[in-house]
Write a structure and sequence with these properties.
By secondary structure, the protein is of the alpha+beta class. Strands 1, 2, 3, 4, 5, 8, 9, 10 and 11 form a 9-stranded mixed sheet that branches. A two-stranded antiparallel sheet has the order 6-7. The chain is globular and about 55 Å long. The chain starts with a strand and ends in a 5-residue tail after the last strand. About 11% of the residues have low confidence.
């Protein structure tokens, strides 16, 4: 009999250039090194039963990532956390573990709100962030095949400027909130960064996820409050 646990971990800026699949492999290997009894799938090519919340594009760091891990039997959350902390490489840190009640919905099947901090290092990128913060509308065009498809709902009006962050002559930071639905709707950080890359100085802007919550009829919920 298996039991499920939700793990919150960080992806430090030092390893932000790792792709999602590479980060997933790091966690899977850490589970093996730690000796955790991870449940395996059935079939010709069995794999560890680990699922992730939302994928981040290459170049985006994160303070709040989540993964659901199925174990054979039950363990204390403290023991799971300690084992993973010892097995993970520098740049990834497990900060909390929660046991999931039976029937808990996977994070991929729920609406998610993510808060990102956008940073600029070069001086020319400061104006880019200031323009994003003050703009009423920035239109997102997604490519499909050879066509540019206009996405009517994907505008900056879907982004909430949370704070101005630190501003100086050579650097700036702002926070934005992006909402994605289980059906794939909403504006992702990849969409926003693609627009920023086309702006003057946009190549000097990078992002870090600093918050993630589940959206429901009852309001916002921390993924570990299960």
């Amino acid at each position: 009999m298996s039991s499920k646990y939700r793990v919150r971990y960080e992806k430090a800026p030092a390893i932000r250039m790792l792709a999602h699949l590479e980060v997933a492999r790091v966690l899977e290997r850490a589970c093996r090194r730690s000796g955790l009894p991870v449940a395996m799938s059935q079939g010709f090519r069995p794999h560890q039963k680990i699922t992730f919340a939302t994928n981040l594009p290459v170049g985006v760091a994160s303070e709040v990532e989540y993964a659901d891990i199925a174990l054979v039997g039950e363990m204390s959350t403290d023991s799971i956390r300690d084992r993973l902390v010892d097995a993970l490489p520098e740049g990834m840190l497990v900060s909390a573990v929660a046991a999931l009640p039976p029937g808990t919905a996977a994070l991929q099947s729920q609406d998610i709100s993510s808060t990102f901090q956008l940073y600029s290092a070069p001086e020319e990128a400061v104006q880019t962030l200031e323009g994003i913060q003050s703009a009423d509308v920035i239109q997102i065009i997604r490519k499909k095949g050879t066509k540019d498809l206009e996405s009517p709902g994907r505008f900056l009006k879907n982004i909430q400027a949370v704070s101005g962050g630190n501003n100086s002559a050579s650097s700036a930071s702002i926070q934005v909130e992006l909402v994605t639905s289980a059906t794939g709707g909403g504006l992702g950080i990849k969409d926003l960064l693609a627009v920023i890359r086309e702006m003057p100085g946009g190549s000097g802007v990078w992002a870090k996820r600093v918050g993630l919550s589940i959206l429901s009829n009852e309001g916002r919920k921390d993924p570990l409050d299960v």
